């Protein structure tokens, strides 16, 4: 019996219906980068390097590449035509995380007198799920390279680069859960310390 392989995803669960991009192929690698900020403070002793003073944490950035593949009929079962099919639906869902929330599903604002004077809406956040990691993020960069097209010139194959910034806010349930998991794993890692020497392991 073949073991089911879990798939990563990006999702906007605030939309109705939820907007979910399930990874057709899991990325080969994921870059997880965390910045930490320090400033220099002059040393009292002549000739020594300035002291590093911690000023706060920086952004945690996650980036990875996705491969999208579709046939002439495409991945969208609702649309049987090649026009706007292939992988166009998945690309549209990914791009919706870059534009204001009202743009993703349309708005009645234009019919009800326009949006003049309203506060600029931000793009929706997304949930990034990969194994035990579930984090709320904002998509800050999306690079799409369309590499193959069907008879209607809709993309049927694409390489996508995704860059996310994790929302790390005190009290945020997903951030706090990830922090607790990280601390628990670090504590379990202490058990991996191996004592070596002529008397190890003990008899």
How would you explain this protein's 3D organization?
With 203 residues, the chain is of the alpha+beta class. The chain has one domain (9-37, 53-101, 123-188). Helices cover 15% and strands 36% of the residues.
Number of strands: 7
User: Could you say how many structural domains there are in total?
Assistant: 1
How many helices? The count is 3
- The proportion of strand residues reads 35-45%
Instruction: State the end-to-end distance.
Output: 42 Å
How do the helices and strands follow one another from N- to C-terminus?
EEEEHHEEEH
Mean pLDDT, to the nearest integer, reads 82
Largest sheet: 7 strands, antiparallel
Structural class: alpha+beta
Please give the order of strands in the largest beta sheet: 2-1-5-6-7-4-3
Helix content: 10-25%
| Anisotropy-based shape | elongated
Question: What is the element layout, followed by pairings?
Answer:
Elements: E1 9-12, E2 19-22, E3 30-41, E4 51-69, H1 88-95, H2 101-105, E5 126-130, E6 133-149, E7 155-166, H3 173-189
Antiparallel strand pairs: 1-2, 1-5, 3-4, 4-7, 5-6, 6-7
């Amino acid at each position: 019996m073949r073991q089911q392989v879990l798939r990563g995803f990006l999702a906007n669960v605030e939309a109705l219906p939820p907007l979910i991009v399930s990874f057709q192929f899991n990325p080969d690698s994921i870059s997880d980068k965390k910045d930490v900020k320090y400033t220099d403070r002059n040393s009292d002793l002549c000739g020594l390097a300035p002291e590093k003073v911690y000023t706060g944490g920086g952004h945690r950035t996650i980036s990875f590449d996705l491969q999208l593949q579709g046939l002439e009929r495409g991945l969208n079962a609702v649309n049987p035509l090649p026009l706007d099919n292939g992988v166009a639906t998945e690309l549209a869902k990914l791009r919706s995380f870059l534009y204001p929330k009202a743009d993703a599903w349309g708005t009645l604002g234009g019919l009800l007198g326009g949006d003049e004077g309203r506060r600029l809406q931000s793009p929706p956040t997304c949930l990034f799920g990969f194994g035990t990691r579930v984090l709320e993020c904002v998509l800050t960069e999306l690079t799409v390279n369309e590499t193959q097209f069907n008879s209607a010139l809709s993309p049927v194959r694409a390489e996508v680069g995704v860059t996310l910034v994790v929302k790390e806010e005190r009290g945020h349930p997903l951030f706090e859960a990830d922090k607790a998991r990280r601390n628990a794993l670090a504590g379990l890692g202490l058990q991996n310390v191996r004592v070596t020497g002529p008397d190890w392991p003990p008899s």
